[in-house]
């Protein structure tokens, strides 16, 4: 039997999953690490924490599975996009990673736009300058930490730092590289023109691969630490959204995904480069050669429910430990007791600013319509509904771009909640499908590794062998007008509050 390993370097933790070549999960392990927020709107992590988590989870997976490491034919990498990892000439990390949800770099985005030109920036990168992208983070270091900037020898993304630690190779792949704002997205290569205009060196950029291509092999030192066999192939992999799309079978136009992880993403595959002229959605290279994808991102999706759990969910956490279940299951049960629409309580999930459709790092979370009648159940449900409204915003932009939407597949941690899936079906007014695997990005990374290792002839064959739709939730007819009414109110709140957000600074 052949096996494949998928490693997902997420924001809250790393998850490593072992699959057989039919896509069945053999075993998995997760290791968490902290998120540091030294100031409001800042978000950083220590790359060493990621590596320690990868070593720990690989070792546990190999030990618990009983699989011979020589039967693991490939390793696929995925993880949070846009994070900045700076290395010196000795390969040492220069500072903590400024990650995807950090919002400090609006001034640097304005600077990049001025240096390159908005129209030319779109032509090269298919996107406007955004605070989430890697380029503005490096520019921030240039502007604020020049002593660190002058020591830069390599710029890596989170999963590509793990690749370096596993293989000793400096490499990335097209889907994740698209989110750096250094890549020529239509031509799938680094833009020397853009790097030159920003004052960055082409030598800092790792080699770019297609996502299924083998980028290196496991080194002797990494084999010693993890238990993997030295020489095991490591594929290019993908950013978490592109890899998750492969893991959900989103590899052709018409089938899209709605993912609720820390962030929320609506993702659609395209055979050509299409861009939202307002820059509200992002267009990147897909993990399949000669294809691209568009995605709308809401910054604080699962993060919003996690925030509610961590700060106000003490009872659920304690009871969950006693019952041996996930506290989110108990929160779901409470939310079910509230009426759809929560009697007019509406939540804006802008805890970390917003990307789609508002592109506003200054946006803040809001509970609107709160009365003495509302209770804990309403608060939980309102957070879940607010995230679904935000995903509807993303979906509407994609529809406006004339990207076909024939089927929506739920994924991510939030996609495991039947209640949250039903909310999406009702608010999107579209059936929500569920596939057989719940591993998303890790599954996609493993399938890409399988293509690179020759287990499958291409990504389509890999998905056909591993992925099937197992259930579909249709909209509940009587809920649609309720949600439509409150969605109209939801859409009006951001314009009403936009100017006030800046007064909080």
Descriptive report:
The protein folds into two domains: 3-248 and 440-467, ATPase, nucleotide binding domain (Nucleotidyltransferase, domain 5, 2-Layer Sandwich), CATH 3.30.420; 302-434 and 478-499, Nucleotidyltransferase, domain 5 (2-Layer Sandwich). The strands form eight sheets. The chain has a seven-stranded mixed sheet with strand order 18-19-17-16-22-23-24. A five-stranded mixed sheet has the order 3-2-1-5-15, sandwiched between helices. A two-stranded antiparallel ribbon has the order 4-7. The mean pLDDT is 96. Helix 11 packs across helix 12 (314-323). It starts with a strand and ends with a helix. A hairpin with a 6-residue loop joins strand 18 (282-285) and strand 19 (292-298). The protein has 505 residues and is of the alpha+beta class.
- Distance between the ends: 58 Å
pLDDT < 50 stretches: none
Helix content: 25-40%
Helix count, DSSP H or I runs of 4 or more residues: 18
Tally of separate domains: 2
Q: State the name of the first-level CATH class of the largest domain.
A: Alpha Beta
Please identify, by name, the CATH architecture of the largest domain: 2-Layer Sandwich
Structural class based on helices, strands and sheet pairing: alpha+beta
The CATH homologous superfamily name of the largest domain equals ATPase, nucleotide binding domain
């Amino acid at each position: 039997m052949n096996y494949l390993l998928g490693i997902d370097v997420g924001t809250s933790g790393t998850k490593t999953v072992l699959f057989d070549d039919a896509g069945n999960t053999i075993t998995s392990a997760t290791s968490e690490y902290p998120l540091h927020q030294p100031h409001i709107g800042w978000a950083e992590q220590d790359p060493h924490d990621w590596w320690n988590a990868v070593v720990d989870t690989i070792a546990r997976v190999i030990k618990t599975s009983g699989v011979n490491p020589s039967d693991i034919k490939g390793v696929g990498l995925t993880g949070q996009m846009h994070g900045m990892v700076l290395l010196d000439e000795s390969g040492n990390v220069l500072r903590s990673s400024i990650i995807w949800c950090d919002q400090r770099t609006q001034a640097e985005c304005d600077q990049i736009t001025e240096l390159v030109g908005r129209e030319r920036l779109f032509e090269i990168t298919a996107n406007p300058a955004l605070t989430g992208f890697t380029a503005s983070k490096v520019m921030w270091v240039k502007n604020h930490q020049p002593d660190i900037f002058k020591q830069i020898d390599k710029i890596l993304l989170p999963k590509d730092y793990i690749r370096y630690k596993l293989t000793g190779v400096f490499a990335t792949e097209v889907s994740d590289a698209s989110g750096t704002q250094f890549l020529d997205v239509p031509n799938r290569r680094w833009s020397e023109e853009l790097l030159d205009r920003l004052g960055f060196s082409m030598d800092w950029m790792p080699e770019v691969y297609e996502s299924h291509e083998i980028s290196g092999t496991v080194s002797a030192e990494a084999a010693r630490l993890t238990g993997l066999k030295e020489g095991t192939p490591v594929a290019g992999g993908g950013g978490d959204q592109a890899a998750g799309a492969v893991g959900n079978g989103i590899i052709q136009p018409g089938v899209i995904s709605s993912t609720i992880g820390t962030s929320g993403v609506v993702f659609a595959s395209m055979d050509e480069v299409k861009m939202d002229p307002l820059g509200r959605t992002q267009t990147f290279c897909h993990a399949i050669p000669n294809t691209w994808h568009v995605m709308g991102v809401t910054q604080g999706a699962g993060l919003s429910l996690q925030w509610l759990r961590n700060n106000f969910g003490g009872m659920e956490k304690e009871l969950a430990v006693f019952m041996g279940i996930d506290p989110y299951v108990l929160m779901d049960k409470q939310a079910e007791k509230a009426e759809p629409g929560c009697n007019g309580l509406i939540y804006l999930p802008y805890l970390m600013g917003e990307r789609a459709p508002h592109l506003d790092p200054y946006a803040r979370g809001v509970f609107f319509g709160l009365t003495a009648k509302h209770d804990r159940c309403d608060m939980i449900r309102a957070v879940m509904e607010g995230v679904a409204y935000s995903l509807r915003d993303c979906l509407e932009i994609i529809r406006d771009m004339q990207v076909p939407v024939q089927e929506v597949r739920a994924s991510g941690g939030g996609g495991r909640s039947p209640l949250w899936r039903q909310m999406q079906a009702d608010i999107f007014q579209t059936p929500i499908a569920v596939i057989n695997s719940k591993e998303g990005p890790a599954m996609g990374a493993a399938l890409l590794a399988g293509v690179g290792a020759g287990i499958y002839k291409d990504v389509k064959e890999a998905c056909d062998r591993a992925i099937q739709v197992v259930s579909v939730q249709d909209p509940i007819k009587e809920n649609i007008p309720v949600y439509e009414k409150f969605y109209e109110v939801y859409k009006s709140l951001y314009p009403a509050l936009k100017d006030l957000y800046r007064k909080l600074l």
